[in-house]
Amino acid sequence: MHTVYATAASLDGFIADPDHGLEWLLQHDVPSDDADWFASTGALAMGSSTYDWLVRHLAATGEAWPYAQPVWVFSSRARRAVEGADLRFVSGDVRPVHAAMAAAASGRDLWIVGGGDLAGQFLDAGLLDEVVVSVAPVTLGAGMPLLPRRADLRLRAAEAVGGVFARLTYEVPRDV
After folding, report:
1. Beta-ladder partners of 157
2. Which residue of 26, 84, 133, 139 has the fewest C-beta atoms within 10 A of its own C-beta?
3. 25-84 pLDDT, tens digit each
């Protein structure tokens, strides 16, 4: 089991625009390997801004909740749950939540969906193993940063995805 922060980012390092929007990302039609990714993922964590954006997007498009896995949503205030989704609303220290996620994941990976500060909390606690960034061919100039703190990482892989994105996979070294 690995704890992986996997996200998309603009070329200038933002995961969302200044209004927490992701429309810039959705303009690209890129083939995905989501089925493999979801099969290897046992539990997810996301911040409240990511959750709020996803709920608005699903309401606007009529799409169903995309995750069969349990999702821990970090929020400092009450949120409305999506019907049929396995959601656990939490706040505070990521360590006990990570333990609960690991227990629920049954040996599969844990996915930190976003945002950057939440991923940073897992990093600070020594719980993050990988950072996977799909870099989009767009600059935003401002927005929510990929990871708003220093992280010394080691590149494990770089690949082109769909002729549009560059997927960079980094490990979080334990000896830094």
Report:
1. 169
2. 84
3. 888 776 666 678 888 999 999 999 999 999 999 999 999 999 999 999 999 999 999 999
DSSP 149: S
> What residue type is assigned to position 58 of the chain?
L
DSSP for 65-99 reads P---S-EEEE-SS--PPPTT--EEEE-S-HHHHHH
Calpha distance 158→156 (Å, rounded): 7
Regarding beta strands 3-10 and 14-16, do their DSSP bridges make them parallel or antiparallel, or are they unpaired?
unpaired
Torsion angle of the four alpha carbons 5, 9, 14, 15, in this order, in degrees rounded to the nearest 10: -60
Q: How far apart are the first and last CA of the chain?
A: 21
Tokens 């810039």 correspond to 24
* SS3 (DSSP) at 127: coil
Q: By the 8 A CB rule, do 94 and 27 touch?
A: no
- Cα separation of 144 and 121, whole Å? 15
Locate the domains of the chain by residue range.
35-151
CATH 2.40.10.10 fits domain 35-151: no
Q: Which two tokens stand for residue 155?
A: 């590149």
Cβ pair 152, 27 in contact under 8 A = no
